[in-house]
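[READ THE FOLD]
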Amino acid sequence: MPVNSPLPIASELSPVNGVRLGHAEAGIKRPGRKDVLIIELNEGSSVAGVFTKNRFCAAPVQICREHLQASANSGADIRALIINTGNANAGTGEPGYKNAMRTCEELAKLMGLKKEQILPFSTGVILEPLPVEKVIAGMPQAIGNLNADNWFNAAHAIMTTDTQAKAYSKQVEINGKTITLTGISKGAGMIHPNMATMLGYVATDAKVPPALLQQLTTAAADLSFNAITIDGDTSTNDSFIVMASGASQVEIPASGQAHDIFRQALIEVCQKLAQMIVRDGEGATKFITIQIEGGKTDAECKLVAEAIAHSPLVKTAFFASDPNLGRILAAIGYAGIADLDVGRVQLWLDDVWVAKDGGRHPEYKEEDGQRVMKQAEITVRANLGRGQATQTVWTCDLSHEYVSINADYRS
């Protein structure tokens, strides 16, 4: 079950003017579940994205990059997204690319668009051919229920091993007008984003120039989806898209108060969605925040945070509520900082000071560590004593259930 993660409520998800969503049950993996989603955008919308750096990236990721580049070169708007679950269309070679392109072509025909105006996405089992006929057959149903107030169903339509849907809305006031941001994401396993998350989509009615939207999207991803890990595996299909319909007519500038308000709102939405993924991590029982302070650079702080977050020994200790905290010091030591002075390292577990100046704190008691380890939410904080940089990463524990879920994933 998710770690203290509230279920999204349909009435709390705000529609975004200029964006409509429709879903279908296409029977891609099993009958009776939502597995195709179409997102339609107003003419004139800006779209930005970041994608997996996995060299075995899926066919739809390749096409998304091509179509976004074509849009930037020609000025032709991206007008629709199509997402299928149950099949990743990754490791499928040239046939997989052709199938992904065919979904763009068929949707373009149905919506009166050009194929280059469509972005395709897939998630599910790798190395299996995309059942393209099922995806195409589901398109009319999805188009038929396109609705601005369909975010709740959309969140369910992109789930795979997720135990619950992930969605969040935020509204802010800019220049006396209300701006809406609403997003959905999916992911529970194969989560170590090297750009964004498994799949994430955020829409806003703000008017944002394409180049600025790309900058904001990249920055938001780095502070949210790129700061989570469940198992250290970077997916072949990671995709994060931000869509700005411009329907509010409120323009976001490149700097100033309006820019800062919008940027912070976008980051908040992304962080909420990213943390929902960790809380719903496959088999997770603990939500763990890892804060690294006192680094020379943000990069080395993140290096240390991820070393702790990826360690199977650390993660299994958290699952067992076993304060075997020397494992955390070991991870800090092998993270890759060649000139780290371990005599300056401090370590806390929530409010418990565990290690002082590189060694066990004289007043640390194991029962205090165990008290914290038994909590559902835990903060690990380390100070490297090297500078002023800080970074935060969110992760979870590693349980027996994680093994069971992934051993039985295809059955």
Notes: The CA atoms of residues 114 and 239 lie 22 Å apart.
